[in-house]
Amino acid sequence: MKKLAAGIAAAIMILFFQVPGVTQMQEKGVVKKEAGITAGKTGPSAWQNFKKPDDATLRRILTPEQYKVTQREGTERAYQNEFWDNKKEGIYVDIVSGEPLFSSLDKYDSQTGWPSFTKPLEPSNIVTHEDRGLLSVRTEVRSKHGDSHLGHVFNDGPPPTGLRYCMNSAALRFIPKEDLEKAGYGEYKKLFEKK
Predict the structure, then answer these.
(1) What whole-number distance in Å separates Cα of residue 139 and Cα of residue 62?
(2) DSSP class of residue 128?
(3) Of 61, 115, 125, 192, which residue is most buried, by most CB within 10 angstroms?
(4) What is the C-alpha separation between 139 and 154, in angstroms, rounded?
(5) Greatest CA span in the chain, whole angstroms?
């Protein structure tokens, strides 16, 4: 009986750590799920053919903050999130599906404490909905393939669009320009080539 229980436990651990594309690391004795479901997959099919996992899988793979933001329309704290002041060149993708969303070329300091962009990198990957929460009407921004809550878009941004895509870092994964090729986003390298 003990051998059977040990075998089942081992099989569960193998299945957990072999979820396709999940990158995990040990940090202070706790497994921290850093890069979402599609990390490590390459090529456009990794996100274009994405099938959203069930809620139990999402809870297991995402950090509590990533889950709260992307699946429960949460908002992380201003100035206490990963990308609000990130100045590196690269692209931002959905933490769940990996679909390309924003470029650092369109990022600016909105003085709000959240990563803000003037426009999406791939408009076809963005879906907007009217949000009547918090005693106001806002425009919610979601990812098309992952159906992740990303944040909101406002009409108080700078030229040329006048828009402010105010996003949650917890909904995003950043791919630095030097890693685009190996991460499967090589088509976006040309955005950062000096002319």
Answers:
(1) 25
(2) E
(3) 115
(4) 7
(5) 68
Give yes or no: 79 in active site: no
With H, G, I as helix, E, B as strand and everything else as coil, classify residue 101.
strand
pLDDT band for position 43 (cuts 50, 70, 90): low
Residue 97 has pLDDT above 50, yes or no: yes
Q: What per-residue confidence (pLDDT) applies to 36?
A: 55
Angle formed at CA 180 by CA 61 and CA 62, multiple of 5 degrees: 10
**Structure tokens, 84:** 């609000």
Phi and psi at residue 104, in whole multiples of 5°?
-65, -25
Q: Is the pLDDT of residue 20 over 50?
A: no
Return the residue matching tokens 């408009």. 123
Chain mean position to CA 70: 8
Nearest to 103 by CA among 45, 193, 188: 188
Two structure tokens written together for 61: 């793979």
pTM: predicted TM-score of the whole model, two decimal places: 0.79
Q: Residue holding tokens 């003085």?
A: 111
Please say whether the beta carbons of 157 and 116 come within 8 A. Answer: yes
Please spell the DSSP secondary structure of 129-171, one letter per residue.
Answer: EEE--TTS-EEEEEETTT--EEEEEES---TTT--EEEE-GGG
The one catalytic residue in 35, 39, 96, 166 is 166
